[in-house]
Protein backbone atom coordinates (compact mmCIF):
# COMPACT_ATOMS: atom_id res chain seq x y z
CA UNK A 1 0.00 0.00 0.00
CA UNK A 2 1.38 3.45 -0.96
CA UNK A 3 2.76 5.27 2.08
CA UNK A 4 0.60 8.31 1.42
CA UNK A 5 -2.59 6.23 1.42
CA UNK A 6 -1.50 4.39 4.59
CA UNK A 7 -0.76 7.67 6.32
CA UNK A 8 -4.08 9.06 5.15
CA UNK A 9 -5.87 6.13 6.76
CA UNK A 10 -3.95 6.62 10.00
CA UNK A 11 -4.42 10.38 10.01
CA UNK A 12 -8.07 10.00 9.01
CA UNK A 13 -8.69 8.18 12.31
CA UNK A 14 -6.97 10.93 14.30
CA UNK A 15 -9.21 12.83 16.77
CA UNK A 16 -10.23 16.26 15.66
CA UNK A 17 -9.90 15.52 11.98
CA UNK A 18 -12.39 17.44 9.82
CA UNK A 19 -15.63 15.45 9.43
CA UNK A 20 -15.07 15.15 5.71
CA UNK A 21 -11.92 13.17 6.49
CA UNK A 22 -10.49 15.19 3.61
CA UNK A 23 -6.75 15.22 3.23
CA UNK A 24 -5.69 18.71 4.17
CA UNK A 25 -2.36 20.05 3.13
CA UNK A 26 -1.99 21.55 6.60
CA UNK A 27 0.91 20.01 8.51
CA UNK A 28 -0.21 17.25 10.88
CA UNK A 29 1.66 18.91 13.75
CA UNK A 30 -0.84 21.72 13.70
CA UNK A 31 -3.54 19.32 14.86
CA UNK A 32 -1.47 17.40 17.36
CA UNK A 33 1.28 19.78 18.39
CA UNK A 34 1.30 21.92 21.52
CA UNK A 35 2.55 24.81 19.46
CA UNK A 36 0.85 28.16 20.24
CA UNK A 37 0.26 28.24 16.54
CA UNK A 38 -2.04 25.22 16.82
CA UNK A 39 -5.02 25.68 14.58
CA UNK A 40 -8.51 24.50 15.60
CA UNK A 41 -9.12 21.01 14.23
CA UNK A 42 -12.22 22.16 12.39
CA UNK A 43 -10.34 24.89 10.57
CA UNK A 44 -11.18 24.80 6.93
CA UNK A 45 -8.08 25.27 4.82
CA UNK A 46 -9.89 26.63 1.83
CA UNK A 47 -7.13 27.02 -0.69
CA UNK A 48 -6.45 30.72 -1.04
CA UNK A 49 -4.51 29.94 -4.15
CA UNK A 50 -7.42 31.17 -6.27
CA UNK A 51 -6.41 34.79 -6.73
CA UNK A 52 -9.35 35.70 -8.94
CA UNK A 53 -7.09 36.04 -11.99
CA UNK A 54 -5.13 33.51 -13.96
CA UNK A 55 -1.83 35.14 -12.97
CA UNK A 56 0.08 34.01 -9.88
CA UNK A 57 0.17 36.43 -6.97
CA UNK A 58 3.84 36.40 -6.05
CA UNK A 59 5.69 37.18 -2.81
CA UNK A 60 9.50 37.31 -2.76
CA UNK A 61 11.13 37.12 0.69
CA UNK A 62 14.63 38.53 1.23
CA UNK A 63 14.14 40.48 -1.96
CA UNK A 64 16.67 43.27 -1.41
CA UNK A 65 19.75 41.07 -1.75
CA UNK A 66 21.89 40.32 -4.80
CA UNK A 67 19.15 38.39 -6.63
CA UNK A 68 15.73 39.52 -5.38
CA UNK A 69 15.30 42.81 -7.25
CA UNK A 70 16.31 41.14 -10.51
CA UNK A 71 13.82 38.36 -9.82
CA UNK A 72 11.05 40.88 -9.09
CA UNK A 73 11.72 42.80 -12.31
CA UNK A 74 11.84 39.54 -14.30
CA UNK A 75 8.58 38.20 -12.82
CA UNK A 76 6.82 41.58 -13.18
CA UNK A 77 7.48 41.49 -16.90
CA UNK A 78 5.87 38.03 -16.97
CA UNK A 79 2.95 38.42 -14.55
CA UNK A 80 2.38 42.16 -14.27
CA UNK A 81 3.94 44.63 -11.86
CA UNK A 82 1.12 44.57 -9.31
CA UNK A 83 1.16 40.76 -9.05
CA UNK A 84 4.73 40.62 -7.68
CA UNK A 85 5.38 41.84 -4.14
CA UNK A 86 8.97 42.34 -3.07
CA UNK A 87 9.71 42.08 0.64
CA UNK A 88 12.59 42.31 3.06
CA UNK A 89 13.47 43.54 6.56
CA UNK A 90 15.52 46.44 5.18
CA UNK A 91 14.37 49.76 3.78
CA UNK A 92 14.39 49.74 -0.03
CA UNK A 93 16.07 52.50 -2.03
CA UNK A 94 13.58 54.96 -3.55
CA UNK A 95 13.82 53.57 -7.10
CA UNK A 96 12.97 50.07 -5.82
CA UNK A 97 10.21 51.29 -3.49
CA UNK A 98 8.57 53.15 -6.37
CA UNK A 99 9.28 50.35 -8.90
CA UNK A 100 6.51 48.05 -7.68
CA UNK A 101 4.79 46.70 -4.55
CA UNK A 102 7.15 46.44 -1.58
CA UNK A 103 6.31 45.28 1.95
CA UNK A 104 8.20 44.68 5.18
CA UNK A 105 8.37 40.96 5.93
CA UNK A 106 10.47 39.25 8.58
CA UNK A 107 10.34 35.51 7.97
CA UNK A 108 11.01 34.97 11.69
CA UNK A 109 7.61 36.55 12.37
CA UNK A 110 5.23 33.74 11.43
CA UNK A 111 2.07 35.77 12.04
CA UNK A 112 3.35 38.67 9.94
CA UNK A 113 4.19 36.29 7.09
CA UNK A 114 0.80 34.59 7.33
CA UNK A 115 -1.00 37.93 7.32
CA UNK A 116 0.87 39.08 4.20
CA UNK A 117 0.00 35.86 2.35
CA UNK A 118 -3.70 36.07 3.29
CA UNK A 119 -4.19 39.81 2.84
CA UNK A 120 -2.43 39.84 -0.54
CA UNK A 121 -3.92 36.51 -1.73
CA UNK A 122 -0.43 35.17 -2.48
CA UNK A 123 -0.31 31.97 -4.57
CA UNK A 124 3.43 31.69 -5.33
CA UNK A 125 6.28 32.34 -2.89
CA UNK A 126 9.98 32.71 -3.77
CA UNK A 127 11.91 32.35 -0.55
CA UNK A 128 15.21 34.23 -0.95
CA UNK A 129 15.88 35.25 2.68
CA UNK A 130 19.14 33.72 3.93
CA UNK A 131 22.61 34.31 5.33
CA UNK A 132 25.11 33.06 2.76
CA UNK A 133 28.19 30.94 3.33
CA UNK A 134 30.89 33.29 4.61
CA UNK A 135 28.61 35.67 6.50
CA UNK A 136 26.85 32.65 8.00
CA UNK A 137 30.11 31.32 9.42
CA UNK A 138 30.62 34.72 11.04
CA UNK A 139 27.20 34.55 12.73
CA UNK A 140 26.12 30.93 13.08
CA UNK A 141 23.23 31.56 15.47
CA UNK A 142 21.64 34.17 13.20
CA UNK A 143 22.23 31.98 10.14
CA UNK A 144 20.58 29.06 11.93
CA UNK A 145 17.59 31.23 12.87
CA UNK A 146 17.06 32.80 9.45
CA UNK A 147 17.97 29.80 7.30
CA UNK A 148 16.26 27.11 9.40
CA UNK A 149 13.58 28.62 11.67
CA UNK A 150 12.67 31.10 8.95
CA UNK A 151 12.36 28.26 6.47
CA UNK A 152 10.05 26.36 8.83
CA UNK A 153 7.74 29.38 8.99
CA UNK A 154 7.72 29.64 5.21
CA UNK A 155 6.99 25.93 4.79
CA UNK A 156 4.08 26.06 7.24
CA UNK A 157 2.51 29.13 5.66
CA UNK A 158 2.99 27.66 2.18
CA UNK A 159 1.42 24.34 3.18
CA UNK A 160 -1.44 26.02 5.05
CA UNK A 161 -2.31 28.23 2.09
CA UNK A 162 -1.50 25.81 -0.72
CA UNK A 163 1.22 27.99 -2.23
CA UNK A 164 3.61 27.02 -4.97
CA UNK A 165 6.93 27.45 -3.16
CA UNK A 166 10.40 28.03 -4.59
CA UNK A 167 13.38 27.74 -2.27
CA UNK A 168 16.89 28.08 -3.74
CA UNK A 169 19.57 25.70 -2.64
CA UNK A 170 23.23 25.99 -3.61
CA UNK A 171 26.46 24.32 -4.63
CA UNK A 172 27.16 24.89 -0.95
CA UNK A 173 24.74 22.07 -0.09
CA UNK A 174 27.56 19.65 -0.87
CA UNK A 175 30.73 19.03 1.13
CA UNK A 176 34.23 17.50 0.97
CA UNK A 177 32.86 13.92 0.88
CA UNK A 178 30.57 14.67 -2.07
CA UNK A 179 31.84 13.80 -5.57
CA UNK A 180 33.21 17.12 -6.84
CA UNK A 181 33.89 16.70 -10.53
CA UNK A 182 31.16 16.39 -11.50
CA UNK A 183 28.64 16.60 -8.64
CA UNK A 184 25.36 14.83 -9.49
CA UNK A 185 21.91 15.63 -8.08
CA UNK A 186 21.86 12.60 -5.79
CA UNK A 187 25.01 11.93 -3.76
CA UNK A 188 26.46 12.33 -0.28
CA UNK A 189 25.71 15.76 1.18
CA UNK A 190 27.76 16.55 4.31
CA UNK A 191 28.46 20.29 3.98
CA UNK A 192 30.80 21.91 6.50
CA UNK A 193 29.06 25.31 6.76
CA UNK A 194 25.88 26.32 8.61
CA UNK A 195 24.75 27.70 5.25
CA UNK A 196 25.20 24.34 3.53
CA UNK A 197 23.64 22.40 6.42
CA UNK A 198 20.63 24.75 6.40
CA UNK A 199 20.21 24.36 2.65
CA UNK A 200 20.34 20.55 2.80
CA UNK A 201 17.72 20.86 5.56
CA UNK A 202 15.64 23.08 3.29
CA UNK A 203 15.84 20.53 0.46
CA UNK A 204 14.86 17.64 2.74
CA UNK A 205 12.10 19.53 4.57
CA UNK A 206 10.66 20.88 1.32
CA UNK A 207 10.54 17.41 -0.19
CA UNK A 208 9.03 16.01 3.02
CA UNK A 209 6.25 18.62 2.95
CA UNK A 210 5.70 17.79 -0.71
CA UNK A 211 5.30 14.05 -0.17
CA UNK A 212 3.53 14.30 3.22
CA UNK A 213 1.22 17.27 2.72
CA UNK A 214 1.19 17.76 -1.04
CA UNK A 215 3.07 21.09 -0.94
CA UNK A 216 4.14 22.16 -4.43
CA UNK A 217 7.78 22.66 -3.42
CA UNK A 218 10.41 23.34 -6.10
CA UNK A 219 14.11 23.87 -5.51
CA UNK A 220 17.18 24.62 -7.64
CA UNK A 221 20.75 24.36 -6.46
CA UNK A 222 22.20 27.60 -7.80
CA UNK A 223 25.91 27.92 -8.68
CA UNK A 224 27.69 31.16 -7.78
CA UNK A 225 25.50 33.82 -9.37
CA UNK A 226 27.11 36.78 -11.12
CA UNK A 227 25.22 40.03 -11.55
CA UNK A 228 26.20 43.45 -12.83
CA UNK A 229 23.68 45.74 -11.14
CA UNK A 230 23.65 44.32 -7.60
CA UNK A 231 26.18 43.61 -4.87
CA UNK A 232 26.80 40.06 -3.51
CA UNK A 233 25.58 39.26 -0.01
CA UNK A 234 28.63 37.76 1.74
CA UNK A 235 29.34 34.49 0.02
CA UNK A 236 32.39 32.56 -1.14
CA UNK A 237 31.79 33.26 -4.84
CA UNK A 238 31.51 37.03 -4.33
CA UNK A 239 34.95 37.58 -5.95
CA UNK A 240 33.44 36.77 -9.35
CA UNK A 241 31.10 39.74 -9.00
CA UNK A 242 33.52 42.29 -7.53
CA UNK A 243 36.28 41.58 -10.07
CA UNK A 244 34.34 43.22 -12.89
CA UNK A 245 33.69 46.42 -10.97
CA UNK A 246 37.34 46.71 -9.90
CA UNK A 247 38.72 45.76 -13.33
CA UNK A 248 36.76 48.56 -15.03
CA UNK A 249 37.22 51.11 -12.23
CA UNK A 250 40.86 50.45 -11.22
CA UNK A 251 42.27 48.05 -13.84
CA UNK A 252 43.24 45.65 -11.04
CA UNK A 253 41.69 43.24 -8.54
CA UNK A 254 42.81 41.50 -5.36
CA UNK A 255 41.27 38.02 -5.31
CA UNK A 256 40.47 36.30 -2.01
CA UNK A 257 40.55 32.77 -3.49
CA UNK A 258 43.51 30.84 -4.97
CA UNK A 259 43.98 31.22 -8.72
CA UNK A 260 43.23 27.52 -9.27
CA UNK A 261 39.89 27.43 -7.36
CA UNK A 262 37.34 26.02 -9.79
CA UNK A 263 33.65 26.64 -8.96
CA UNK A 264 30.35 26.38 -10.85
CA UNK A 265 29.07 29.83 -11.82
CA UNK A 266 26.05 31.30 -13.64
CA UNK A 267 25.02 34.69 -14.98
CA UNK A 268 21.96 36.11 -13.21
CA UNK A 269 19.78 36.14 -16.36
CA UNK A 270 20.23 32.37 -16.67
CA UNK A 271 19.53 31.96 -12.93
CA UNK A 272 16.26 33.90 -13.02
CA UNK A 273 15.09 32.17 -16.20
CA UNK A 274 15.86 28.74 -14.70
CA UNK A 275 13.88 29.73 -11.60
CA UNK A 276 10.79 30.73 -13.58
CA UNK A 277 11.06 27.75 -15.94
CA UNK A 278 11.11 25.22 -13.11
CA UNK A 279 8.20 27.03 -11.40
CA UNK A 280 6.15 26.95 -14.62
CA UNK A 281 7.09 23.36 -15.50
CA UNK A 282 4.12 20.94 -15.44
CA UNK A 283 4.24 18.98 -12.16
CA UNK A 284 4.17 15.71 -14.09
CA UNK A 285 7.45 16.65 -15.82
CA UNK A 286 9.30 16.87 -12.50
CA UNK A 287 10.89 13.56 -11.56
CA UNK A 288 12.54 15.37 -8.65
CA UNK A 289 11.81 18.43 -6.52
CA UNK A 290 15.43 19.55 -6.10
CA UNK A 291 17.64 19.99 -9.17
CA UNK A 292 21.20 21.07 -9.89
CA UNK A 293 21.37 23.77 -12.56
CA UNK A 294 24.64 24.66 -14.26
CA UNK A 295 26.09 27.04 -16.82
CA UNK A 296 29.89 27.12 -16.50
CA UNK A 297 32.78 26.43 -14.15
CA UNK A 298 35.90 28.57 -13.96
CA UNK A 299 38.85 29.54 -11.80
CA UNK A 300 39.96 33.09 -10.94
CA UNK A 301 42.83 32.53 -13.42
CA UNK A 302 40.37 31.54 -16.18
CA UNK A 303 38.33 34.68 -15.47
CA UNK A 304 41.42 36.91 -15.42
CA UNK A 305 42.59 35.54 -18.79
CA UNK A 306 39.17 36.27 -20.31
CA UNK A 307 39.23 39.80 -18.87
CA UNK A 308 42.68 40.42 -20.36
CA UNK A 309 41.16 39.96 -23.84
CA UNK A 310 39.14 43.13 -23.16
CA UNK A 311 41.39 45.03 -20.71
CA UNK A 312 45.01 44.26 -21.65
CA UNK A 313 46.36 46.28 -18.73
CA UNK A 314 44.26 44.38 -16.16
CA UNK A 315 46.23 42.98 -13.20
CA UNK A 316 45.06 40.34 -10.67
CA UNK A 317 46.77 39.72 -7.34
CA UNK A 318 45.89 37.16 -4.65
CA UNK A 319 45.30 37.62 -0.93
CA UNK A 320 43.62 34.36 0.06
CA UNK A 321 40.88 34.45 2.70
CA UNK A 322 41.40 31.18 4.59
CA UNK A 323 37.71 30.86 5.60
CA UNK A 324 36.41 31.33 2.06
CA UNK A 325 39.17 29.14 0.61
CA UNK A 326 38.32 26.26 2.96
CA UNK A 327 34.65 26.58 1.99
CA UNK A 328 35.44 26.70 -1.73
CA UNK A 329 37.73 23.67 -1.45
CA UNK A 330 34.78 21.67 -0.07
CA UNK A 331 32.36 22.62 -2.86
CA UNK A 332 31.70 21.09 -6.30
CA UNK A 333 34.11 21.93 -9.10
CA UNK A 334 31.65 20.99 -11.85
CA UNK A 335 27.87 20.49 -11.62
CA UNK A 336 25.96 17.71 -13.38
CA UNK A 337 22.55 19.17 -14.27
CA UNK A 338 21.45 16.48 -16.75
CA UNK A 339 18.19 15.82 -14.87
CA UNK A 340 17.10 19.47 -15.18
CA UNK A 341 17.94 19.40 -18.89
CA UNK A 342 16.03 16.13 -19.35
CA UNK A 343 12.94 16.82 -17.19
CA UNK A 344 12.08 20.44 -17.94
CA UNK A 345 14.40 21.41 -20.81
CA UNK A 346 16.93 23.50 -18.92
CA UNK A 347 19.60 25.10 -21.15
CA UNK A 348 21.97 27.91 -20.18
CA UNK A 349 22.70 30.85 -22.49
CA UNK A 350 25.81 32.42 -20.96
CA UNK A 351 29.24 30.78 -21.05
CA UNK A 352 32.40 32.54 -19.82
CA UNK A 353 33.04 34.71 -22.95
CA UNK A 354 29.41 35.87 -23.06
CA UNK A 355 29.45 36.53 -19.31
CA UNK A 356 32.56 38.72 -19.48
CA UNK A 357 31.34 40.67 -22.51
CA UNK A 358 27.95 41.30 -20.90
CA UNK A 359 29.39 42.32 -17.52
CA UNK A 360 31.98 44.67 -19.05
CA UNK A 361 29.39 46.26 -21.33
CA UNK A 362 27.30 47.02 -18.26
CA UNK A 363 30.18 48.30 -16.13
CA UNK A 364 31.85 50.01 -19.04
CA UNK A 365 28.66 51.87 -19.99
CA UNK A 366 28.14 52.57 -16.32
CA UNK A 367 31.65 54.03 -16.04
CA UNK A 368 31.23 56.03 -19.23
CA UNK A 369 28.01 57.44 -17.76
CA UNK A 370 29.85 58.23 -14.51
CA UNK A 371 32.62 60.09 -16.40
CA UNK A 372 30.00 61.99 -18.41
CA UNK A 373 28.22 63.22 -15.27
N1 LIG B 1 23.88 34.87 -4.86
C1 LIG B 1 24.28 33.63 -5.11
O1 LIG B 1 25.35 33.42 -5.72
C2 LIG B 1 23.47 32.47 -4.66
C3 LIG B 1 22.30 32.63 -3.92
N2 LIG B 1 21.59 31.53 -3.52
C4 LIG B 1 20.38 31.68 -2.72
O2 LIG B 1 19.51 32.62 -3.33
C5 LIG B 1 18.85 33.39 -2.29
C6 LIG B 1 19.07 34.88 -2.55
O3 LIG B 1 20.47 35.05 -2.56
P1 LIG B 1 21.10 36.53 -2.49
O4 LIG B 1 20.15 37.53 -3.05
O5 LIG B 1 22.47 36.41 -3.04
O6 LIG B 1 21.19 36.72 -0.91
P2 LIG B 1 21.62 38.03 -0.12
O7 LIG B 1 22.42 37.59 1.05
O8 LIG B 1 22.19 39.04 -1.05
O9 LIG B 1 20.19 38.58 0.37
C7 LIG B 1 19.46 37.89 1.35
C8 LIG B 1 18.38 38.82 1.85
O10 LIG B 1 17.71 38.20 2.95
C9 LIG B 1 17.29 39.23 3.83
N3 LIG B 1 16.99 38.74 5.17
C10 LIG B 1 17.85 38.48 6.18
N4 LIG B 1 17.18 38.13 7.29
C11 LIG B 1 15.85 38.17 6.99
C12 LIG B 1 14.66 37.93 7.71
N5 LIG B 1 14.67 37.59 9.00
N6 LIG B 1 13.47 38.08 7.06
C13 LIG B 1 13.44 38.44 5.76
N7 LIG B 1 14.54 38.69 5.01
C14 LIG B 1 15.73 38.55 5.63
C15 LIG B 1 18.45 40.22 3.83
O11 LIG B 1 18.02 41.50 4.26
C16 LIG B 1 18.90 40.18 2.37
O12 LIG B 1 18.34 41.24 1.63
C17 LIG B 1 19.43 32.90 -0.95
O13 LIG B 1 18.52 31.97 -0.36
C18 LIG B 1 20.71 32.20 -1.34
O14 LIG B 1 21.02 31.13 -0.46
C19 LIG B 1 22.02 30.24 -3.78
C20 LIG B 1 23.19 30.05 -4.47
C21 LIG B 1 23.95 31.13 -5.03
C1 LIG C 1 27.22 29.90 -4.06
C2 LIG C 1 26.43 30.52 -2.97
O1 LIG C 1 25.52 29.89 -2.46
C3 LIG C 1 26.76 31.87 -2.48
N1 LIG C 1 27.12 32.79 -3.56
C4 LIG C 1 27.94 31.77 -1.53
O2 LIG C 1 29.07 31.84 -2.02
O3 LIG C 1 27.70 31.59 -0.33
TrEMBL record:
Any one Pfam family match given in the protein's UniProt record, by short name: Epimerase
Pathway the protein takes part in: Amino-acid degradation; L-threonine degradation via oxydo-reductase pathway; glycine from L-threonine: step 1/2
Known catalytic reactions: L-threonine + NAD(+) = (2S)-2-amino-3-oxobutanoate + NADH + H(+)
Enzyme class: oxidoreductase
GO molecular function, a single term: L-threonine 3-dehydrogenase activity
Taxonomic superkingdom: Eukaryota
EC assignment: 1.1.1.103
Annotated ranges, domain NAD-dependent epimerase/dehydratase: 58-293
Alphabetical GO biological process terms: L-threonine catabolic process
Annotated family: Belongs to the NAD(P)-dependent epimerase/dehydratase family.
Family matches, as PANTHER family: L-THREONINE 3-DEHYDROGENASE, L-THREONINE 3-DEHYDROGENASE, MITOCHONDRIAL
Function: Catalyzes the NAD(+)-dependent oxidation of L-threonine to 2-amino-3-ketobutyrate, mediating L-threonine catabolism.
Protein name: L-threonine 3-dehydrogenase, mitochondrial
Amino acid sequence: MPVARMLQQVVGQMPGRPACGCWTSAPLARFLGTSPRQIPADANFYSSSFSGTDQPRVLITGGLGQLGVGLANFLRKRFGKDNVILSDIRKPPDHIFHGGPFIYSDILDYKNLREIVVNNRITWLFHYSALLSAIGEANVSLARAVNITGLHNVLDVAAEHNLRLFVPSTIGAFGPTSPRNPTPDICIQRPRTIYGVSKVHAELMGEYYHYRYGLDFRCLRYPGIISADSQPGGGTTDYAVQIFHDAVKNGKFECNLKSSTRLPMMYIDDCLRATLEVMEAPAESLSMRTYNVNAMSFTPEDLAQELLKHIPEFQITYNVDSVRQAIADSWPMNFDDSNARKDWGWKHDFDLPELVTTMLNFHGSDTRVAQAN
